[in-house]
Amino acid sequence: MLVSRILKQRFPQTSSLPLLLRRTTPNPNPNRLLLSRSLSSQSPSPSPSPSSSSDAELRKYLGYGALLIGCAAATYYSFPLPSDAKHKKAHLFRYAPLPDDLHSVSNWSATHQVHTRVFLQPETLHDLEALVRDANQRKQSIRPVGSGLSPNGIGLHRARMVNLALMDRVIEVDRESMRVRVQAGIRVQQLVDGIKEYGFTLQNFASIREQQIGGIIQVGAHGTGARLPPIDEQVISMKLVTPGKGTIEISKDKDPELFYLARCGLGGLGVVAEVTIQCVERNQLEEHTFVSNINEIKKNHKKWLAENKHVKYLWIPYTDTVVVVRCNPISTWRGPTKFKPKYDKDEAVQHVRDLYVESLQKYRAADTSSSSSENDEADVNELSFTELRDKLLALDPLNKDHVIKVNKAEAEFWRKSEGYRVGWSDEILGFDCGGQQWVSETCFPTGKMSKPNMKDLEYIEELKQLIQRQGIPAPAPIEQRWTACSKSRMSPASSVEEDDIFSWVGIIMYLPTADARQRKEITDEFFHYRNLTQTQLWDKYSAYEHWAKIEVPKDKEELLELQARLRKRFPVDAYNKARMELDPNGILSNSKLDKFFPLPEAN
């Protein structure tokens, strides 16, 4: 009992407890064998009568029952459940000490995590080729993983992983053509910093800059701008290290069919070792942020898509507020717009601070069992808007009325933050996404650049109505962006029509707490939210999820439906054929890839 209690206190949720007990106490009651031996050596006693035997049995079991009840009562009153048990912070994946050779690897939001004993980081192309060749000969998995930022952990694999963080050099710069050849492990910000002295930069950016180049192109990541394609379209040639055919170079001119298939290849057709990227001239952008509403959006939407190099909308659920962010090169003859903001940054966020302090006091008063933490006592004046939003949501993340208050505070923050700012494109096009989160982002066609069909706004209107009708505690923002099409066949924005445009819509639920129970409840509510959008919107608008955000269904029937749905949009047979040729032993795959694209069984 004592050993069991100590283990449960140290590892309260470990499923291996019985095994631990068996290992540490191979003979839990050594006296038991001794007792049976001594009894067997005694002469047998006379057989009792049937009536006395039954009475004895009854008394024995009544005694056992009384003993059990007494033990239970003693345990309950001696070791009561702590009053703050519901608010205990989670220590994710720390239920038992890990062996020294076991590495823990998780994505940024800690929604996906694996333990592996092999995490390889080659320093040269020769090293990478050698380890891929060796793994293939041994038929050992070696899944390529980048910076681990994908919300669905698409690069993770508990068997073995290879990461190119040490292969991060700029190899060659062609000033005349503005092309740059880099090792695939270089991060976006590293690359931008490395080529700015030559006067050029990347054509577009996603919200953050920490992705490795190999990873950002393999999952079809994107920025915003209806005339600008996803980031994979900037790649004009690649060097792949494949298990089946060794190192191959592919481009628009050299094996274009494989090139357009592998450019957004999800890490399944080879380890991307080197990439040649078409860059553009480095320039400064002027960002204009202002608040609008659906009626104004409808009047100006087509014009804004056509006139702005970059544009995105941030929709605030349960409000009429739409935040519009437009970015354009600064006019050489007019210069930046002169604008004097009504509020400074401190004034813009002050009402959010006030709401946090008020809400914190309210929830503390209502829940006397909760205890203050150091984070709760932090100086609110030192917190950014997104940090304040996380703290506000953490107080009651699934209370719709509370979330609505937070959303309205965000709408007011953006109203007071209207204005202009100027900077280089890699500085301006970033976006503070907030803290840990669940996110689902879909991509769907929305007409042509010459004639948008307005389906993008219809989608949003239906989504907002769905949120209100179902009472979903949906936080802000719902982010909407646009891109031109990509020729990469596995891109969600794939199209052969160069004038096609696509809208990308992301829904979100933050994970602003370390409380394991709260995180589980938020996760369940998010997937309820996501599944409602799937059943009511996706097929109607031909929407497909971003590869870095698509999750594998647990239900077998739902998985079969997902596989069938992916077949309607993507060249699954061609992709699987290339997988079998380039990776015949399947060493680059993981469970996600195998479930998305099951290979035909060998005859």
From TrEMBL:
MF-aspect GO terms: D-arabinono-1,4-lactone oxidase activity; FAD binding; galactonolactone dehydrogenase activity
Cofactor or coenzyme needed: FAD
Residue ranges constituting the FAD-binding PCMH-type domain according to the UniProt record: 111-282
Gene Ontology CC: one annotated term: membrane
Ranges where the record places region Disordered: 20-55
Pathway recorded for this protein: Cofactor biosynthesis; L-ascorbate biosynthesis
Compositionally biased region (Low complexity): 20-54
Record-given protein name: FAD-binding PCMH-type domain-containing protein
Keywords: Oxidoreductase
